[in-house]
Prior knowledge:
The protein is an alpha+beta fold. The chain contains nine helices and four strands.
Amino acid sequence: MYLCISKKQRGFHSVGHFKKYILVLVLTGLGLGSVRAQLPVRNLHYFYEEAAKRSPLLKDYQNQLQSNRIDSMRVKAGYLPQVTAIGNGLYAPVINGYGFDQVLTNGKALEAALNVNYSLASKKNINNQLEGIHLQSDSIRFAKGLSVLDLQKAVTDQYITAFASQQQAAFNREVYELLHQEETVLKKLTRANVYKQVDYLTFLVTFQQQQLQWKQAELQLKNDYSTLNYLTGIADTIAHELEEPGIEPVLLNTEGGFFMRRFGIDSLKLLNQKRAVDFNYKPKATVFANGGYNSSLALQPYKNFGTSVGFTVSVPIFDGHQRKMQYNKLSIAQQTINGYKEFFQNQHTQQLNLLRQQISDQNGLYKQVSEQIKFTKSLIQVDSRLLQTGDIRIADFVIAINNYLAAQNLMRQTNITRLKLVNQLNYWNR
């Protein structure tokens, strides 16, 4: 292949060895491509579902919601009549005058009774406690929804990265196949002394470089796909083909958006706590009744069956103005919430405006790069025809190829950046 006059055999052996190496890699790549083609194509929604299904954090939030439902039932059950059974027995012997004073102990006693207690709480007080649990559930639901958004954002970012690696590997393979065809033509032209051996070697270096870039892109795809599986909890080592993400900006009204909901929940919690403070300073009453057997066994123990009823009332009078102090604490907490809310609103608006501007800039850059790619691709096609007739230098053809590679890489990078910006915009625009 090398057209050295004095070192012809050595050059032929070196290029022949290189060609065998390339052939093995091509067959390997084609084999991997055919295996991948037989596998089912995966899309972004598939990884969403798998990530949500396997997330222990989402399961934890779901369990907390179930636990809160149990707490609501416990509050209701706590204001039903509480029935308890008690039993006590006592025997205090006096031996040779030694023992407990029987005036205090009666020597022996037996008690078995059934007690019923009922707290006379107002319906408003019970509803306020139930509302507190409901607000806690709302906080858990918000945290769960935020975790879902965070998980989707992370999965989408990694999916975009893996899809970009897939595109890069496919493009590098396409360029390699193009250069492989040109290498065959150049070899014949070099033998015919149309091109010099040094020009052929220059092209061969570019050819080898492209082959290595293709291999590197395949390894990067495997790594990025493995990271995607790791993020979603999928135990799979095979890189399936990925569909194009197809992410578009979501236009929503964010005035009462998802992220603002947490401030409303926190304010309602403080209002609920304030009502709980008020209920703590209202009179409380409890009625009770019991019945059973209570006897010292000293006189007619068979007649000591009976019953009793009663009530207790407590009215708070003075506690050192602690009620006002609790009000002040709740007022300070509300001021803190308002401060965070105002700061978030301003930051949220700036974030959305910045993302929209960046997406617009990337769209403009993408159009420019697309036009450049059309030009560089046309130039390569023209140079390829000129190359076959020996009317262009190989160095110029290599420069055209490098320009095409650079433009394609810039376009892919611009598209990746745009998709990730859209992903961020959709995350905050809820």
